[in-house]
Amino acid sequence: MHVAHLSLQDFRSYATAEVALEPGVTAFVGPNGQGKTNLVEAVGYVATHGSHRAATDAPLVRQGAARAIVRAGVVRDDRRALIELEINPGRANRARLNRSPVPRPREILGMLRTVLFAPEDLAMVKGDPGERRRFMDELLTARAPRFAAVRSDYERVVKQRNALLRSAAAHRRSPGAEVLATLDVWDAHLARTGADLLAARLELVAALRPLVARAYAELAPHSGAAGLAYKSSLGDEPLSTDRAQLGERLLKGAAEARKQELERGVSLVGPHRDELQLRLGDLPARGYASHGESWSFALALRLAAFELLRADGDDPVLILDDVFAELDAGRRARLAGMVAPAEQVLITAAVPADVPGELTGAAYTVADGEVRRDGARRDGARGEGP
Length: 386
Ligand SMILES: Nc1ncnc2c1ncn2[C@@H]1O[C@H](COP(=O)(O)OP(=O)(O)OP(=O)(O)O)[C@@H](O)[C@H]1O
What we know:
The chain has 386 residues and is an alpha/beta fold. The protein has helices at residues 36-48, 122-126, 129-143, 147-171, 177-219, 243-264, 291-311, 329-339, and strands spanning 2-11, 14-20, 24-29, 68-76, 79-87, 94-97, 100-102, 114-117, 226-231, 275-280, 283-284, 317-321, 344-349, 361-367, 370-373. Helices cover 40% and strands 23% of the residues. The strands form three sheets. The protein has a six-stranded antiparallel sheet, with helices on one face. Strands 8-12-13-3-14-15 form a six-stranded mixed sheet, sandwiched between helices. It has a three-stranded antiparallel sheet with strand order 9-10-11. Adenosine-5'-triphosphate (ATP) binds at residues 12-13, 30, 32-38, 59, 61-63, 322, 348, 350, 366. InterPro entries: DNA-binding_RecF (IPR001238), DNA-binding_RecF_CS (IPR018078), P-loop_NTPase (IPR027417), RecF/RecN/SMC_N (IPR003395), RecF_2 (IPR042174).
């Protein structure tokens, strides 16, 4: 699939912007702080209904404006769809598909699929486990949009269960039969929704493992092998992906943890406490990998995500935000070779020399609040050989 047209209104630094796009490579080039990332962030927002660099929607709306609108014309198998999202911080966002309102924005998740790699992704390797859980859950949602509901059901259960545990812990005396009975009900909800989430993650990690290893080996052939291990809060015993069995394990885990949970006032068992461990050779990547290795690992995770989505039947739009400047010449050339065949690749770079010569295509200059199409097709920067 590819985006044929992007239209912005009061999104980030743009009062308005209209950008026509084509399949193949498009580079957005311009000095720092001119709005290159804002453009690709908008494309990512249409796909995921979230930003890769803001936890809430408020920063996405141009300062002084009440709402932002992002529209994308998406072409998939020669069929066109016009997706429109109205971003209303503090209120419900609205969505339209082919100019008709849809009841809930979530219903059009999956109409556009993107894989976005940006400097913030270093946190997937160096940051806390929540970053890697988010990577898994966002990828699951990209593959099957109905997963957004599984995820939010589970989050709601943990939130409510935590509230109950917190208030029990605050009273500092043994909880009464009523509290324990309510907790039993929440344990059952946790086991049911948690089993769905856990099974999906285990299947995902199994599918990703060989793809990550291969992408990393291609990017960084002289480094150790990249591995993934799913560490569950249920302990080290192997887990099957059978949902009924996982539900039983979660119930048992919650029962065993109950005393401690009541003391601490927090849910200690379940996929919200799990970790996706990244390994380079025999060592964990976090805390051991060099900056370059961490960067390559994060890229390998995104490239593996791209492969997985592509295997589901359609190339997602690949977005590389400010990526090449960080890489040495060899990794740059290898990455360029790996991404060139994608149906659409959107790249941002501060200077033309940061776009590898292998990636020829359309070019825009982004400066002074404008996005201007360069006259000639860009032939790529020269002298970027490995
Ligand atoms: N909500 C907003 N309202 C107005 N301006 C904003 C808003 N959010 C971000 N900006 C402005 O957008 C600019 C940043 O744009 P962006 O991150 O796209 O830059 P960039 O061209 O990718 O730069 P770099 O090369 O440094 O990564 C900043 O000047 C910032 O002040």
